[in-house]
Specification:
InterPro entries: F420H2_quin_Rdtase, Split_barrel_FMN-bd
Strand content: 25-35%
Number of strands: 7
CATH superfamily of one domain: Electron Transport, Fmn-binding Protein, Chain A
GO molecular function, one term: coenzyme F420 binding
CATH architecture of one domain: Roll
Oligomer: single chain
Helix content: 25-40%
Number of helices: 6
Family: Belongs to the F420H(2)-dependent quinone reductase family.
Largest sheet: 7 strands, antiparallel
Organism: Nocardia arthritidis
Order of helices and strands: HHHEEEEHEEHHE
Catalytic activity: oxidized coenzyme F420-(gamma-L-Glu)(n) + a quinol + H(+) = reduced coenzyme F420-(gamma-L-Glu)(n) + a quinone
Radius of gyration: 15 Å
Distance between the termini: 37 Å
Shape: globular
Amino acid sequence: MVSNPLPAFARRLAQQPWVMSMSPVVVPAERLIRRLTGGRMGVLDLAGLPSIEITVRGRKTGTPRTTSLLYVPNGEAFVVIGSNWGSPKHPAWSANLRAASTATVRHGGERFPVRVAEATDVDRKRLWDLAVEFWPGYEMEYALSGFREFRIFELRRIED
């Protein structure tokens, strides 16, 4: 069985500062691929990387907002990092997630509710270390952001 070389290539590529300028191309491509596959796949999936769609109500409008994100596997939990492509500003989805106690995740064609927990203190350090080990590009994005403290969330499935 041949292993997929794309995840290792994507991890190396994501450590290049110029890649962060690709968001105007990647984000619309992500939306198109998600629409064409009925939400089952996105750009990250094509590269062999783990991705989820998060739907959370807007903190001001209450309107459901959906965002596709890379996630860091942590047992049964999904860890998401508000790196915003190395921007000095926090991503809007992270402010909405911060204001919510629950959200909906779409993963592998399945949609389910999750409990939202923003990481703090010791948990934050542990999850940051896990994230950087999984996706080394986060360190570069941190530097590009002006060393903004990224919001880190752990999402856990709510069992019926």
